[in-house]
Amino acid sequence: MTYNAVLFDLDGTLLDSIEDLADSMNEVLARWELPQHPVEAYKYFVGDGMEQLAERALPRERRDEATVARCIREMRQEYQTRWNAKTRPYAGIPEMLDALTERGMTKVVLSNKPEEFTRKMVAGLLSRWRFEVVAGQKPDVPIKPDPAGALRIAEQLEIPPKAFLYLGDTNTDMKTAVAAGMFPIGVLWGFREADELLAHGARVLLEKPMDLLDLPALKDALG
Predict the structure, then answer these.
(1) pLDDT digits over 101-114, tens only?
(2) What does the pLDDT look like over 193-209, one tens digit per residue?
């Protein structure tokens, strides 16, 4: 199989964003005099969209629809002010993106983060590289693990799904890749563990970004 495109998740895959996400939500919780959470806990709160993040961060007795909606609004306001305070590309990501660019690989981003922030973060922190499509959560497309967003990107670029490598750091990403018919690659520098990625379909695990270019099964594709 010839792979000529790479679909990336954003948070936990390209960008180490967990502290800014945690700080933003904890600020909302502190304002409401509700329990806050350590940064490590947020690695399991994020990944499935902002509504799920709010529900997971709130105490069970405060997860009614109105409270969750208000939490999301205030979280977005806080995140607007600090999305790039601590967030940076992971070590090795710039070198990997340079290598993929040199080899002519098409690069795209698909995130469950709201579209506004997804585009802002790619433009602000990954502007050195061209991504043919940058897509975040929006009302007309179901969030991952529904494969609709990934399949829409493949159709838009006229590249068959089976020609995509899919890099992500959570079970949500692996399930999306499998459902879309893309090659699922789990990254171990992100928010989750190897067992979770393998249990949900990862066919390869990467310890560090540049390992992508050393995979025997992909060397021919990557040149």
Answers:
(1) 999 999 999 999 99
(2) 999 999 999 999 999 99
- Work out whether strand 88-89 and strand 15-16 pair parallel, antiparallel, or are unpaired: antiparallel
Distance CA 157, CA 20 (A): 32
How far apart are alpha carbons 33 and 47 in whole angstroms? 25
User: Do 5-16+87-222 and 18-82 fold alike per CATH?
Assistant: no
Distance CA 171, CA 111 (A): 13
The CATH number of 5-16+87-222, from 3.40.50.1000, 3.40.50.410, 3.90.1210.10, 3.10.310.30, is 3.40.50.1000
d(CA 37, CA 121): 24
| 3 state SS of 203 | coil
Q: Quick one: CATH architecture of 18-82?
A: Orthogonal Bundle (1.10)
What pLDDT shows up at residue 214? 87
Domain regions of the chain by residue span: 5-16+87-222, 18-82
Asked if residues 175 and 201 have their Cβ atoms less than 8 Å apart, the reply is yes
Mean pLDDT of 117-140: 96
Residue type, 198: L
Measured CA to CA, the distance from residue 41 to residue 152 in angstroms comes to 32
Which residues of 49-159 form beta strands (DSSP E)? Answer: 88-89, 106-114, 133-137
Q: What does residue 58 show for φ and ψ, rounded to 5 degrees?
A: -80, 150
